Amino acid sequence: MKRGRSDRKRQQNDRLWKLAHAERAALAEDLSGLRAEQWRRGTLCGHWDVEQVVAHLTAAASLNQWQWLRSMLGARFRPDVHNQRRLTERCGQTPVETLDLFQAVIRSTTAPSGHIPAYLGEVVVHAQDVRQPLGIQRQVSGR
After folding, report:
1. Is the predicted pLDDT of residue 57 greater than 80, yes or no?
2. pTM for this predicted structure
3. What per-residue string of b and e applies to 86-101 under the rule 16 or more CB within 10 Å gives b?
């Protein structure tokens, strides 16, 4: 019985990761033709521009739970300090380089939380935070 439950959980997690990978790939494709000024456009993420949100998504796909906790401890549990440090790490010299860094983690299964449904939500929501101000339409797939 317990093995059956763990197999179902693994299958569910695999499905959720597949959706996260598809959402990241779709976002990368949507952003691949942006002009320089579009990368500086504000997003629905407060003061972050498009490039910074992409860097944030790259950072999230690059930190496991322990790395995230260590980063938060180093920031004295101040999320703004933590996020700024991770943005600095994951922003390239140009927006194209930042997009390249993001494309490198499209298939990553690393996340700051073991709660994959919440992490998938993070990817979907931040992608929309970027797309809406840019006028990019995309319906999120549930498959």
Report:
1. yes
2. 0.91
3. bbeebbbeebeebbeb
**Cα separation of 86 and 91, whole Å?**
9
Tell me which DSSP letter residue 47 carries.
Answer: T
pLDDT at 1 over 60: no
Q: How far is CA 15 from the centre of its chain?
A: 17
Paired residues of 22 in beta bridges: none
> Lowest-confidence range among 4-8, 107-111, 127-131, 138-142?
138-142
Place of tokens 């598809």: 22
Please name the helix (run of DSSP H) or strand (run of DSSP E) that holds residue 81, with its range, or none: helix 79-90
Rounded Cα gap, residues 133 and 87, in angstroms: 20
What mean pLDDT do residues 84-111 have?
97
Give the distance, in angstroms, between the CA of residue 22 and the centroid of all CA atoms in the same chain. 12
User: What is the rounded distance in angstroms from the CA atom of residue 9 to the CA atom of residue 117?
Assistant: 12
Closest to 82 (Cα-Cα) out of 60, 111, 110: 60
Residue type present at position 8: R
